[in-house]
Design brief:
With 136 residues, the protein is an alpha+beta fold. 39% of the residues lie in helices and 24% in strands. A 4-stranded antiparallel beta sheet has the order 4-5-3-6, sandwiched between helices. Strands 1-2 form a two-stranded antiparallel sheet.
Length: 136
């Protein structure tokens, strides 16, 4: 995971970075160190599988996760969120079976999410932003 770069495609150049927040179902506190590590490994695998999803940062709080994701304008932010939520949920249930008990065997993510675009923050603003949401 690194800083955003300009992505050069055949007909455009872009630097789209999204701040995505996904809460767990019922806002349950399920993200411990083990789940966090599994989540980060799954996100790296997603990045290898999908060329339009690049994780810049992942910050875990007790009941939600902050993703800083870079993508291209060819894909809607809602599609990116859908891919991340579905793939991570399936893998986390398989790798961490204790989570299913905490969530009563149901869904992993809440139906809602938060998404905002992030500018190419420089200097103190960028550092403050990352410290606030990603504990860096």
């Amino acid at each position: 995971m690194n800083d955003s770069q300009y992505i050069h495609l055949s007909h455009n150049v872009s630097n789209l970075v999204y701040h995505i927040v996904c809460p767990s179902k019922y806002r349950r506190v399920i993200f411990d160190d083990t789940v966090e590590e599994h989540l980060k490994q799954i996100c790296l695998a997603i990045e290898l599988r999908y060329d339009y999803i690049h994780f810049l940062e992942i910050g875990v709080d007790g009941d939600h996760v902050h993703f800083l994701v870079q993508s291209t304008p060819n894909y809607a932010p809602s599609r990116i969120v859908k891919e991340i939520k579905s793939l991570t949920a399936r893998q986390l249930f398989a790798e961490c079976p204790q989570i299913k008990k905490q969530l009563w065997g149901g869904q992993f993510w809440s139906d809602g999410d938060f998404i905002a675009t992030v500018g190419k923050n420089q200097g103190k603003q960028g550092t403050k932003y990352k410290q606030l949401y990603f504990n860096i």
